[in-house]
């Protein structure tokens, strides 16, 4: 669909998102200002509209799933960009994070094996036995026994 050949009345029936879609489809990637300027020009809106509504237009583009903001600041149709690239970037980041975690968990060369070895010291077990000795004099009393007294 050639936007330049469309009547103004037909263009006015389209949303800004739809006009943007057709612009990107015909002309390829563009930055936000150029896209909105083209929409304003096609709809023959005053330049004041461009200045007042560019922020709303940017929000509109970010919320529509048909469009994607590229690294260079240009907008393009999401359908032209494969999700493999997006997944690959995510996978690379995950691998880097895992590598960092592994590096943090490794034993430093100045640590000896003795420092990392549990000798099997059972001093903690002695503390547990002392606690049991304190509890041996305690008696469990039923509620019925309490009521009888």
Automatic annotation (TrEMBL):
Membrane-crossing ranges are none
What range does the record give for the signal peptide?
A: none
Region described as Disordered: spans on this chain: 86-149
* Keyword field: DNA-directed RNA polymerase, Nucleotidyltransferase, Transcription, Transferase
| Organism superkingdom | Bacteria
Write out the GO biological process terms. DNA-templated transcription; regulation of DNA-templated transcription
Q: Which GO terms describe its molecular function?
A: nucleotidyltransferase activity
Start and end of every HTH HARE-type domain? 14-80
Do you know which InterPro entries this protein is assigned to?
Asxl_HARE-HTH, RNAP_delta_N_dom_sf, RpoE
Gene Ontology CC annotation, any one? DNA-directed RNA polymerase complex
Bias (Acidic residues) ranges: 91-132, 140-149
> Which family does the UniProt entry place this protein in?
Belongs to the RpoE family.
Annotated NCBIfam families: RNAP_delt_lowGC
Q: What is this protein called?
A: RNAP delta factor
Protein source organism = Candidatus Onthousia faecipullorum
What lineage does the source organism belong to?
A: Bacteria, Bacillati, Bacillota, Bacilli, Candidatus Onthousia
């Amino acid at each position: 669909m050639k936007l330049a050949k469309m009547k103004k009345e037909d263009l006015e029936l389209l949303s800004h998102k739809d006009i943007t879609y057709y612009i990107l489809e015909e002309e390829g990637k563009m930055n936000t200002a150029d896209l909105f300027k083209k929409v304003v020009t096609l709809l023959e809106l005053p330049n004041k509209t461009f200045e007042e509504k560019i922020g709303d237009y940017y929000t509109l583009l970010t919320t529509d799933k048909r469009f994607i903001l590229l690294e260079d600041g240009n907008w393009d149709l999401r359908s032209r960009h494969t999700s493999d690239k997006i997944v690959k970037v995510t996978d690379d980041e995950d691998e880097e994070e895992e590598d960092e975690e592994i590096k943090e968990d490794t034993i430093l060369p100045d640590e000896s094996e003795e420092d990392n070895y549990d000798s099997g010291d059972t001093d903690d077990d002695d503390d547990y036995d002392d606690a049991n000795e304190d509890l041996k004099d305690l008696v469990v009393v039923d509620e019925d026994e309490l009521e009888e007294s």
